[in-house]
Automatic annotation (TrEMBL):
Domain of life from the UniProt record: Eukaryota
Coiled-coil intervals: none
Keyword Nucleus: yes
Cellular compartments annotated: Nucleus
Composition-biased stretches (Basic and acidic residues): 15-29
One BP term from GO: DNA-templated DNA replication
Disordered: annotated segments: 1-43
Function per UniProt: Accessory component of the DNA polymerase epsilon complex. Participates in DNA repair and in chromosomal DNA replication.
Lineage per the UniProt record: Eukaryota, Metazoa, Chordata, Craniata, Vertebrata
Keywords linked to the UniProt accession: DNA-binding, Nucleus
KW Transit peptide (keyword) present: no
Cross-referenced PANTHER family: DNA POLYMERASE EPSILON SUBUNIT 4 (PTHR10252:SF79), HISTONE-LIKE TRANSCRIPTION FACTOR CCAAT-RELATED (PTHR10252)
Organism listed in the record: Parambassis ranga
Designated name of the protein: DNA polymerase epsilon subunit 4
Length: 129
């Protein structure tokens, strides 16, 4: 009579069986670890861009203020990110008004409606005139 051995199966073992051979898994692991260990200019290329706005242009705009003589990269990045979030927020709020008008395209009147209706945008009243 043959003895039956029962061994617990872990989730990683199941995943490796579904994903392919052990050699393929080792190759994928080696590729992942090499991507994590990269440094220098080559590593910068593989990273996702954190800001959608051009940082050099934002820095130039910041320097047009006579009170600003130097602007660190961190401050430029924070201003860029805050600008992105602001534009996204006002665009989403204006898009609600475009949808109420059964349109998919934002118009100036949608921005005006969003500015008038939402207290956070009160400082923008009269700026689009």
């Amino acid at each position: 009579m043959a003895a039956t051995v029962v061994a617990p199966v872990t989730a990683t073992e199941l995943e490796s069986d579904r994903c392919g051979s052990e050699e393929e898994n080792r190759g994928a692991e080696a590729e992942e670890s090499s991507q994590q260990q990269q440094t220098g200019p080559a590593a910068a290329v593989s990273h996702i861009r954190l800001s959608k706005l051009p940082l050099a242009r934002i820095k130039a705009l910041m320097k047009t203020d006579p009170d600003v003589s130097l602007a660190s990269q961190e401050s430029v990045f924070i201003i860029a990110k805050a600008t992105e979030l602001f534009v996204e927020m006002i665009a989403k709020d204006a898009f609600v008004y475009a949808q109420q008008g059964k349109r998919k395209t934002l118009q100036r009147k949608d921005l005006d409606n969003a500015i008038e209706a939402i207290d956070e945008f009160a400082f923008l009243e009269g700026t689009l005139d």
